[in-house]
Specification:
alpha+beta; Double Stranded RNA Binding Domain; two-stranded antiparallel sheet; 18 strands
Amino acid sequence: MGDPEPCRIKHTEDTEELTELMEENEKHEELSEVERKTHTCDQCGKSFTIKGSLTSHMRIHTGEKPFTCDQCGKSFSQSASLKLHMNIHTGEKPHTCDQCGKTFLRDSNLKQHLRVHTKEKPHSCHLCGKSFSLIQSLKEHQKIHTGVREYMCFECEKTFITANGLKKHERIHTGEKPYKCSHCDKRFSRSGDLKTHERIHTGEKPYKCSHCDKRFRDLGNLKKHERIHTGIKPFTCDQCWNSFTQKGSLTLHMNIHTREKLYTCDQCGKSFTQKGSLTSHMNIHTREKLYTCESVN
């Protein structure tokens, strides 16, 4: 009998978890020399010692996903994959870094994170020399050089370098917010936004200014603050070349050139280019009301 005909394996999001599960099962199977792998896949020829492992393996080929999350409806081919997925909703991250205390959903994510502490970056870009700790990060980086954006949103046709980037973007259209705060009922479309929000409850401010003792909840605010010390003004007006430390300041400045008046008084309808001008203007109306009230008395 010849070798089984090669087949096309249907890849699913939990194929990696399935592989880990199968390896774990085989580690715990104590086989004697006379025992044989009697259960063989008729699609790819892989053999297993127990029928249950073969049944699980066959779902790679069939694409069957009998295990469904009761929170978001996502389905999985393995019960272990569903169990791991449920941690997204519960917020549980059982794997903790012994260097910095950061927690992770998967053991493989923890192992990747540890390279941050060891400074190990074995994967280098041959075009610019930039190094990465993960091969996947290198592959995604190289698309910047090639300009390849192979993932497209069917709703708005916006393209992305990575599948994960597209997935996050699509939540704008679907309104999906799978990440719920463990302290309140607020939900988020991105896990990073949830982490930043939860620091409001915990009071954690992990980002410290390298020039003073001020600390921040998120990296973006730290970078904005540090420009006070460095004097860097990365946002430049293309009309008059005036530069600003904040993007919002540039947007506000551009109203001078466009004459766009975004801020309108709800009392008299007068419009202004700057919010501060509207605030000052409102004092006219509050004073009028004050004087009217006093004259009546």
